[in-house]
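testing teh design pipeline on a random one, pls ignore if ur not involved
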């Protein structure tokens, strides 16, 4: 929305929420000025360049996640790197083109059984990501060289990260306790033997 419309609405803006299905290839989704149309196989925006400076891209990303949830099992909800990201247009800099470059890494989390420690439970799929951002002010670009808007440009990693969370069985704990106790007993026996031999040597009773 333009800054003039927002000013008339006492600071009100738009709240966008939803989901979309995309191919597992690099792409982008965006909110930009003008009407989006397809011409000669290309997606373009039609708008009046004289109004470009009025398009306010101030925004806050409340939540951004990738990957469809599995309806048969819950997906662990983690806070994404972009959650809470905020950008505000100031009079000194003005509006412009803000691009978030997102690198998505498919992730599979495997949980272990609390008793056996084996990964017998169903894996939890998710998609973790990292991002960098780039902002290009409208006033510093050539006329028509910048489309004011917010772009999320994503790319999928060809690798999959697998995280295994395995609980240690209680028998492993007992084994470690026994090993520690045996080690302490052995060291104590060696120290006692050395003390006994040193006392015997000092009294001239050390056998030949």
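output:
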């Amino acid at each position: 929305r333009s800054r003039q419309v927002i000013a008339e609405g006492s600071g009100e803006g738009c709240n966008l929420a939803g989901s979309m299905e995309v191919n597992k290839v690099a792409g982008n989704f965006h909110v930009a000025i003008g009407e989006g149309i397809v011409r000669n196989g290309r997606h373009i925006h039609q708008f009046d360049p004289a109004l470009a400076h009025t398009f306010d891209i101030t925004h806050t990303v409340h939540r951004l996640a990738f990957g469809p949830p599995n309806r048969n099992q819950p997906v662990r909800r983690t806070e994404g790197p972009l959650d809470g990201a905020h950008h505000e247009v100031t009079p000194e800099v003005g509006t412009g083109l803000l691009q978030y470059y997102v690198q998505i890494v498919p992730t599979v989390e495997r949980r272990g059984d609390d008793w056996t420690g084996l990964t017998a439970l169903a894996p939890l799929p998710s998609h973790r990501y990292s991002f960098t951002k780039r902002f290009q002010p409208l006033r510093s670009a050539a006329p028509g060289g910048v489309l004011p808007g917010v772009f999320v440009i994503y790319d999928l990693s060809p690798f999959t990260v697998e995280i295994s969370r395995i609980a240690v069985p209680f028998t492993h704990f007992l084994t470690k306790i026994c090993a520690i106790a045996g080690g302490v007993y052995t060291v104590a026996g060696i120290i006692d033997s050395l003390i006994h031999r040193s006392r015997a040597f000092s009294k001239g009773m050390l056998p030949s």
